[in-house]
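call fold(seq) -> tokens
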Amino acid sequence: MAFFLQFSLGLLVALAIAGSVLAEAPQDAEEARVAEDDRTIKIETDRLEAVIPKKDPKHWMTGIEKGSFLDKITGFREVGDGLMVVDWLMEAGSDEAHGDQVFAPDGHGVGRYTWHTNETDPARRTYALMAHGSSHRKRVVEGPQLCHRIKPVQPKVIHGKDFIAVTTTYQYEYAAPGRKAGSRWTQRIVFPQGERFFVLMDKIDSVNDSQEMFLRNDTPGCVRHEQGDTFSEIYLSYLSGPKGVRIPSSEFFTPFPPDLKFGYRRDTHKTPEHFIRAYHLRDKKTGKDGPWLAGLTLEPSVVYEAWCSQRPGDIIVMIEEIHGKPVKAGESFSAAHIVGYFDSIEEMHKAYERYKGHTALAADRSGWRLEK
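ret:
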């Protein structure tokens, strides 16, 4: 009888945690630290350092602040404008019929994204085509463009036994004609002790209906370079077969639009087993390769569109759009990612196998967990 009760209890526990991945505590790791002031929250674990802005950012207001993500093992840092930066709430379609008539309280037009269809200034039109392409038209549902137009935020910090979690929320302030403002964006970031990566979720609680709503972000982030001086290659797991493709830095010496090459669309591509985007860091002074900085989207089917393109101005943009499916007011959607440093492509895929299939991230003082 005792054996039966013990077996039943074990079965109930197993069923209770089915569909989630629980954090595993590292052994003998120095305690993580949080330093907070009125502008930022600085996180330091035994493996990483990172800064999350609250106001007056060095570049963007969302995600991990520009230049702050440090790999303590190698001394390398992120070389773009920050990591997991969030943008508009959007949908497929065109807003050129009303885009020039709708302005936010801060004076910035909701229809700014439609430059590629109705911009008359040649220089700005050329830039818009290089930045956004022209083959898949989209429009804004709600604004502002969170990366640089949101007001100061007050993230909530949980300092657990073997992790630190930071949760930021914000409500969109204005909407396109016929839509309501007020959808809520939540970004939760967990920094586990003993790991060279963080785990992140972006979630939208929508107040609008849409046939194809998506959230735009940078996964893992853009790459700043001059003729490949900061990176040697880019890896995209979802192109050119099951092993992915390794693209030399020389492919990014000349600007090209996102719909010319290295693009992914769910309606034109087969859903891959893994969705990984990474760049191989290079020391600017010595030319020596460092670690890979990778972004793993843990459920491939949530990716609506993604591109890796060279814009004018020596910046590679790695935009990713999540969801892109019907949404009703009151419904939610989310995506979960792992972002961090890896010594090899094989190591990325090993981490992916461990955490794959999840779209949500929860955390409280007892621990953190990925959920479906």
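The helical segments are 2-16, 115-118, 122-132, 146-149, 345-355.
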